[in-house]
Design a protein that fits this description.
four-stranded antiparallel sheet
Length: 84
């Protein structure tokens, strides 16, 4: 899946988001800090591809904010280096 944007969420809320997204048949994947090291302790990322405008508006409303742009490989690489 192409990755366009994501929302960091707590482990305790991910199940409810997953249920609502599945009901609407919106494509997404869930990543941990192993996949997306920009996440803080206790967070998961719900990652989305580019979505049609109406679908994006629904997702934005669900999370009550705009998503974060999914970082490119270079950003992830340099973030990893800066932590070591």
């Amino acid at each position: 899946m192409e990755r366009s944007f994501y929302y960091p969420v707590s482990w305790s809320t991910v199940r409810e988001y997953k249920k609502l997204l599945d009901e609407k048949e919106i494509p997404y994947e869930i990543q941990s800090s192993t996949d997306l090291p920009l996440l803080e302790e206790g967070q998961l990322a719900i990652v989305f591809p580019s979505l049609p405008n109406r679908t994006y508006v629904w997702v934005r409303t669900l999370f009550s904010r705009d998503g974060h742009a999914y970082p490119d490989e270079a950003t992830l690489f340099f973030h990893h280096l800066s932590k070591n």
